[in-house]
Design brief:
By secondary structure, this protein is α+β, with helices and mostly antiparallel strands. It has helices spanning about 1-20, 25-35, 105-110, 115-130; strands spanning about 45-55, 60-65, 70-80, 80-90, 90-95, 140, 145-150, 155-165, 170-175, 185-190, 205-215, 215-225, 230-240.
């Protein structure tokens, strides 16, 4: 029994050493194999149904269509009595408000509707639900050193990613389970003009439960918090 206990301790220690020796790119590959084992992301064509819950607000219910091969994105979002729809086809964009597409500039301004916003939604949803696969996109800098960190009592392997200036200035940290390589948390910080992190900026997002969409493991629930004070912002809930 004593030797069995020593063997278990040895194996756990050996696993820890292996994890610590992983490079950032090696960790990313393991995480992608967990989330997208059949390499389906690059040909993703599917629907996401998401309900966003935020304190003191009605839920916002969204239907999202992402067709990567055709460079197509669509989102219909409803909150209370207002429904907005954005469609982005390659370089073209269309907008509707409660089914009306012939909108005046005053209506667009009043409801904060624009093609810039349409592309923002496209990039937002494609990025977050395409993680960790999206970390292989051009302009992403994967840092070589993998850290071990404890977050809310659990140990993680942490991958750091930054971006070319043409892509963005935020710095992201991705927390993976050291045994399965499942992504369970991500976190981002803003940077100053010199590229240094602003410690009181940004947010962290806790991922719970899993939905399998087109063979890809995606987080069912994404709960958002401020880094500076752990203040809760809201939760996105994905349904199959």
């Amino acid at each position: 029994m004593k030797y069995l206990s020593l063997l278990v301790i040895y194996l756990l220690s050996f696993q820890s050493i292996i994890a610590q020796d992983l490079s950032g790119k090696e960790l990313l590959e393991k995480a992608i194999r967990y989330h997208d084992p059949n390499q389906n992301w690059n040909t993703f064509n599917g629907e996401l149904h998401i309900s966003m819950e935020t304190p003191n607000n009605s839920n916002r219910d969204s239907k999202i269509v992402i067709n990567l091969p055709k460079t197509y994105f669509y989102v219909s979002a409803t909150r209370d009595s207002i429904t907005t729809e954005y469609t982005v086809k390659k370089d073209t964009c269309s907008i509707t408000l409660n089914g009306e597409s012939n909108l005046s500039e005053a209506q667009k301004k009043e409801n904060n509707l624009s093609c810039d916003r349409a592309n923002l939604y496209k990039n937002y949803y494609t990025y977050l639900y395409g993680l960790p696969m999206k970390l292989k996109d051009k302009g992403t800098i994967i840092h070589d050193k993998v850290e071990r960190k404890t977050f809310k009592g659990k140990d993680y392997l942490v991958l750091k990613a930054s971006y070319d200036k043409s892509v963005g200035s935020d710095v992201w940290y991705f927390y993976f389970d050291p045994k399965t390589y499942a992504m369970e948390i991500y976190q981002f910080y803003k940077t100053d003009d010199n590229g240094k992190l602003k410690p009181d900026s940004g947010e962290y997002i806790v991922l719970t439960d899993t939905a399998i969409i087109n063979g890809i493991k995606m987080p069912k629930n994404r709960a958002w918090y401020y880094n500076k004070d752990d203040n809760y912002l809201g939760t996105d809930k994905l349904s199959n």
